[in-house]
């Protein structure tokens, strides 16, 4: 170790980190600061060159906007429903796959296809399948006597279509994460439980879930943040900027910024979204204790 | 009965095994169906695009849509643009992340914990929060409608994840490998280059794949930054192509298959490294 100490200079670690740090500084930290400053100005397409400082006015306007609350509630529903099904379906399939089963590797490959398919192609494909007259979904619903549903013209149905598409997209990731976690649980524990005559549900509740927690918790936090911030699916399914009743918070910000050019207002809106996510993450991390014993 | 014990869990009854297969096959059908649906539309002749049949291979299947997609649209230009942007993102992103990941894994220094946390927290920012300032900065730098204007945000988006993945992998390499090289008088970058990187090929491949896929599939930023037809990348081009549900549907489906099948194959062939890779990078300190 003394050799290493002599040969690695005091500044070496910083030189090693510098390239990554510079990229992050230019494209992440500086824009964050800039975004915060923007939220205090009235910058728009008209005032692009000379934005004026307006203080907290944009923030007050966000809170006064009656539609922000309904969009917020829709975003919570969107995130909760999606993450709930991602985790339950993913965990369920992982448990089925985590046993001796001939042909399981080929089944696993088929099951991760949604994750491998480029997201926008998946979204466009589902959009085709939701077509009112010729889409596969309505043709299949026809077997059950359900009449053609206007999936992409009724905002409420478009929102459901987006949820279905996003559930399809997201469960393979949770399945792979769960599978990795399950493989690290020792089989001895289950054998001991068998000897005690524990029911499958008891084994799941008292062995599988607690031991999966360190693997699943970071995945659930990341999954929640990704879902909360999911732009692609809603933008593509709703056809561009779409209807007010299909928006979640981030697509609403995207619309305000790049369709209505209200840069200052959009910036204040996104600072509030970030604050919300940060508070959520801190509370979740604290409550689940996952970082407690670790050295970071 | 003896044979069953070799292939299945010993406590599973035949009923349970059949039940498990049925459930898994139903889910496979759900995951595969959209891909088969695209295939089915792509193979339909022009006059049957609007068909209410659910057959996968249409009665008079034709490759005409594939010909149209390749030669009557700008698909080849979009492919070329996407290949350039995505490859550069992967190469630059991985290079930048190697040294940072190595430093976080091997050196103890002031600011290490904070630095690592900072990289992790960047995953929490909502896209528009960065997108809007990035957009305004790129406008001011006159980088709109240029590949460089796409490349900078793409690299920035892929770096934090890559640093964490690589750091996690480097942690699993025994330090003793490097120590003998230090004793032989190698400099730190030589040790990294000659000893650590050659044994890290799987991690470098996965990290590269993730960075490549990030850029290959990115639609929201590209849609804002690219404006001229000859600069469009695949996602923007294909979304425009499908646009409204029209006669282009068959062409779009063929183009979508040409675009996604190679990626799916690549992804699946690397998938067996994914379980280990994700667990190591994400959970282990």
From TrEMBL, chain A:
Please name the Pfam families in this protein's record: BPD_transp_1
Keyword Calcium on this protein? no
ABC transmembrane type-1 domain segment(s)? 72-284
Please list every transmembrane segment annotated in the UniProt record, as residue ranges.
12-37, 76-97, 109-126, 157-177, 219-241, 261-285
Q: Which domain of life is it from?
A: Bacteria
Coiled-coil positions are none
Topological relation to the membrane, as annotated: Multi-pass membrane protein
Cellular compartment(s): Cell membrane
* Keyword field: Cell membrane, Membrane, Transmembrane, Transmembrane helix, Transport
Transcription is among the record's keywords: no
Signal peptide region: none
Q: Which family does it belong to?
A: Belongs to the binding-protein-dependent transport system permease family.
User: What is the designated name of this protein?
Assistant: Sugar ABC transporter permease
Q: Which organism is it from?
A: Candidatus Cetobacterium colombiensis
Automatic annotation (TrEMBL), chain B:
Main localization is: membrane
- Which terms are listed as keywords in the entry? Cell membrane, Membrane, Sugar transport, Transmembrane, Transmembrane helix, Transport
Q: Which domain of life is it from?
A: Bacteria
Q: Where is the signal peptide?
A: none
What family, per the record?
Belongs to the binding-protein-dependent transport system permease family. MalFG subfamily.
* PANTHER family from the UniProt entry: MALTOSE TRANSPORT SYSTEM PERMEASE-RELATED, MALTOSE_MALTODEXTRIN TRANSPORT SYSTEM PERMEASE PROTEIN MALG
Q: What is this protein called?
A: Sugar ABC transporter permease
Biological source species: Candidatus Cetobacterium colombiensis
Q: What is the lineage of its organism?
A: Bacteria, Fusobacteriati, Fusobacteriota, Fusobacteriia, Fusobacteriales
């Amino acid at each position: 170790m003394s050799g290493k100490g002599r040969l690695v200079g005091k500044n070496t670690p910083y030189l090693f980190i510098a390239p990554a740090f510079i990229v992050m500084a230019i494209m992440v930290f500086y824009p964050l600061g800039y975004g915060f400053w923007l939220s205090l100005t009235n910058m728009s397409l008209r005032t692009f060159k000379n934005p004026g400082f307006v203080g907290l006015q944009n923030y007050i306007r966000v809170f006064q906007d009656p539609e922000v609350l309904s969009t917020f509630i829709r975003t919570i529903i969107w995130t909760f429903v999606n993450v709930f099904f991602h985790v339950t379906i993913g965990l369920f399939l992982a448990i089925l796959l985590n046993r001796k089963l001939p042909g399981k590797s080929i089944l696993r490959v088929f099951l991760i296809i949604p994750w491998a398919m480029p997201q926008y192609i998946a979204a466009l494909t589902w959009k085709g399948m939701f077509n009112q007259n010729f889409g596969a979904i309505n043709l299949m619903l026809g077997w059950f006597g359900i009449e053609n549903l206007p999936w992409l013209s009724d905002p409420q149905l478009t929102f459901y279509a987006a949820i279905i598409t996003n559930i399809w997209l997201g469960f393979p990731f949770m399945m792979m994460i769960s599978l990795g976690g399950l493989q690290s649980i020792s089989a001895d524990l289950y054998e001991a439980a068998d000897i005690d005559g524990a029911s499958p549900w008891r084994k799941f509740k008292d062995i599988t879930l607690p031991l999966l927690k360190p693997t699943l918790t970071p995945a659930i936090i990341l999954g929640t943040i990704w879902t909360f911030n999911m732009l692609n699916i809603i933008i593509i399914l709703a056809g561009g900027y779409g209807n007010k009743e299909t928006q979640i918070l981030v697509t609403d910000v995207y619309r305000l910024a790049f369709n209505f050019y209200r840069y200052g207002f959009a910036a204040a809106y996104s600072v509030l979204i970030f604050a919300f996510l940060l508070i959520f993450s801190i509370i979740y991390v604290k409550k689940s204790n996952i970082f407690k014993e670790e050295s970071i | 009965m003896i044979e069953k014990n070799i292939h299945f869990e010993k406590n599973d009854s035949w009923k349970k095994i059949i039940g498990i297969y049925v459930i898994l096959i139903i889910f496979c059908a759900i995951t595969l169906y959209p891909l088969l649906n695209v295939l089915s539309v792509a193979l339909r002749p022009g006059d049957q695009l609007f068909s209410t049949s659910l057959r996968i291979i249409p009665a008079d299947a034709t490759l005409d849509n594939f010909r149209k997609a390749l030669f009557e649209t700008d698909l080849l230009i979009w492919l070329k643009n996407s290949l350039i942007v995505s490859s550069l993102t992967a190469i630059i992103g991985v290079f930048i992340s190697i040294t940072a990941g190595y430093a976080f894994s091997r050196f103890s220094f002031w600011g290490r914990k904070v630095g690592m946390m900072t990289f992790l927290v960047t995953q929490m920012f909502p896209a528009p929060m960065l997108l809007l300032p990035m957009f305004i900065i790129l406008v001011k730098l006159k980088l709109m409608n240029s590949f460089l204007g796409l490349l900078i945000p793409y690299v920035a988006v892929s770096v934090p994840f890559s640093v964490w993945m690589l750091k996690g992998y480097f942690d699993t390499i025994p330090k003793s490998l490097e120590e003998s090289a230090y004793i032989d008088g190698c400099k730190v970058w030589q040790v990294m280059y000659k000893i650590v990187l050659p044994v890290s090929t799987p991690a470098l491949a996965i990290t590269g794949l993730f960075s490549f896929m990030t850029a290959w599939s990115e639609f929201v930023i590209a849609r804002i930054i690219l404006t001229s037809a000859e600069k469009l990348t695949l996602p923007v081009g294909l979304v425009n192509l499908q646009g409204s549900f029209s006669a282009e549907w068959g062409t779009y489906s063929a183009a979508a298959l040409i675009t996604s099948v190679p990626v799916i194959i690549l992804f699946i062939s690397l998938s067996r490294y994914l379980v280990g890779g994700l667990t190591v990078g994400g959970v282990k300190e």
